[in-house]
Amino acid sequence: MSSGAPRHRVVIVGGGFGGMWAARGLNKQPVDITLIDRRNFHLFQPLLYQVATGALSPANIAAPLRSMFKRQRNCRVLLGEVTAVDGAAKSVTLADGSAVPFDTLVAATGSTHHYFGHHEWEQHAPGLKTIEDATEIRRRVLSAFERAERTTDPVELDRLLTFVVVGGGPTGVEMAGSIRELAIHTIRYDFRAFNPAACKVILVEGQPRVLGGFHETLSRKALEALVKMGIDVRLDCHVTDVQADGVTVKPDGGKAPAYRIDTATVVWAAGVKANPLGKLVAAAAGVEADRAGRVPVNPDCTVGARPDLFVIGDLALQAGADGKPLPGLAPVAMQQGQYVADAIGRRAKGKEPKGPFRYWDKGVMATIGRAKAVAETNGFRFSGHLAWFAWLFIHILYLARFENRILVLFQWFWNFVTRNRAARLITGERADRTGAAPG
C-alpha cells in the first residue's frame, strides 16, 4: 500500500468472475483495494459438474485469492462475510463485527440456489454452486452405486439406479450427460451384482425445450444428443414435491395428473436467486431488489443515485441492448468487472468515466457429453466435435491460473483416452454401518 495522503478506497465484495476482473483491472491505478470473500479461493463454477461426477478434483478449478493477488501491491484480501452495508457511513460490516470503510463499493457476490419457496427441498436435492455442493452430489451419486451393489431388492435397486436432474439449462444438461457417461463408460465394469449402464437418468424441464436460452435449432440438437445417450428427457414438466425417496412431477404444464419418480439421487439445476448481499446494497441505495434478489442498476452499473455503489454479475439486474436483462453468465460478470475498474480508475484520476456499459455477446455454449456440444457465436451455430473442442478451449482459457489450465488439460486428455475419472472419491459421508448413505 502507498504511504502519504489517503488514496481512494475501493472495497470489492466477492472473489468470483466479476470481483476478480474488477480487482485486476484496478492494478496500478491510484486506489487501495480491499477484496472481501467468505471463501479464500476463486472458483471456476462452470466446471463444478465435472467435480460432481469425479472427472476433476476441486483444486483443479479453484485458485487461492491471496496467491492470485500477491503481486498486486494495491490489493488486500480479507476472509470474511459481509452482513451489513451502511450507505451513510460508507462502510461494510463483517460477520465478526468489524467494519471496513470504503469510498467506492463493488458488490459481486453472485447467486445461489432458488427452490421457489420450497426451502425444505434443498436437503434432498442439492444444487451446484459451491465446492461443497459438488462433493456432496458426488458422494450421493457414487454412494447410490455402492448401495446398489449390496441390495437384493429389485425395487430398491431400481430406485438406487434412478437419477433425477431438475432443470434443462446448461447446468442440468451437462450434469445429466456426465452422470450417464460415468455409468456407461467409467464404472461399467467396476461392480459385480449389477450393471451400472442399466441406470436411468431422467432430466425434468418445465419449459417445452432444453437449453431455452439457445436457438431452437441448437436446443433440438441437444435434445437429440441427450436421447441418443439414453437420457429420459421430460419436457413441460414441473416438480411439485421432493422427498428423500423420490420426486413428484406434474406433466403437460400442470394439465395432466401428477406422478411420482422413485429415486435416491436428485440434483437441482432449476433456478438461481441473487446472494442476500443484493438486498443490503439495494436498501443502502434506496432502491428495491426484484423477486430474485437482483439489484436494478443504471447503465453505468451504479445503483440509484449513488455513484459510489456498483453492483455487477449475477447480483445485478441490467438491461442489454435488446432491452432484456443480461444473462447470469461469466462473460457478463467479467466485462462488467473490467468496465467498473476502468470507471473507478478514471474517477480516481479526476477524469470522466466512459459511456454506459455495453455487453459484447461472444455467444453461448453447452456440452452434453464426450464430443457432444452445442455453441452459438455471432449468429453462427454449430454442434458436435467442433462445438466440443471450442467449449474445451474457452473453458481452459478462462481458468484463473496457468497451473489450473495445465492440470485440467492433462486430466481431460487422460479422461478422453482412458474414459477414466480419477476423482471418484466418496468424501464427507457420515458413519453408517449399514452402508446406506444419508439422503
Description:
- The chain is of the alpha/beta class.
- Among the domains are: 8-38 and 80-113 and 273-348, FAD/NAD(P)-binding domain; 122-269, 3-Layer(bba) Sandwich (FAD/NAD(P)-binding domain), CATH 3.50.50.100.
- It has helices at residues 17-25, 48-52, 65-68, 131-150, 154-160, 170-186, 216-228, 277-285, 330-348, 385-398, 402-418; strands at 8-13, 31-37, 41-43, 62-64, 75-79, 82-86, 91-94, 99-101, 104-107, 111-113, 162-166, 200-204, 232-234, 238-243, 246-250, 259-262, 265-268, 272-274, 295-296, 302-303, 306-311, 316-317, 364-369, 372-377, 380-383.
- Strand 24 and strand 25 form a beta hairpin.
- Helix 1 (17-25) packs parallel to helix 9 (330-348).
- Residues 431-439 have low confidence and may be disordered.
Layout of SSEs?
Elements: E1 8-13, H1 17-25, E2 31-37, E3 41-43, H2 48-52, E4 62-64, H3 65-68, E5 75-79, E6 82-86, E7 91-94, E8 99-101, E9 104-107, E10 111-113, H4 131-150, H5 154-160, E11 162-166, H6 170-186, E12 200-204, H7 216-228, E13 232-234, E14 238-243, E15 246-250, E16 259-262, E17 265-268, E18 272-274, H8 277-285, E19 295-296, E20 302-303, E21 306-311, E22 316-317, H9 330-348, E23 364-369, E24 372-377, E25 380-383, H10 385-398, H11 402-418
Parallel strand pairs: 1-2, 1-9, 2-5, 9-21, 11-12, 11-17, 12-13, 19-22
Antiparallel strand pairs: 3-4, 6-7, 7-8, 10-18, 14-15, 15-16, 20-21, 23-24, 24-25
Helix pairs in contact: 1-9
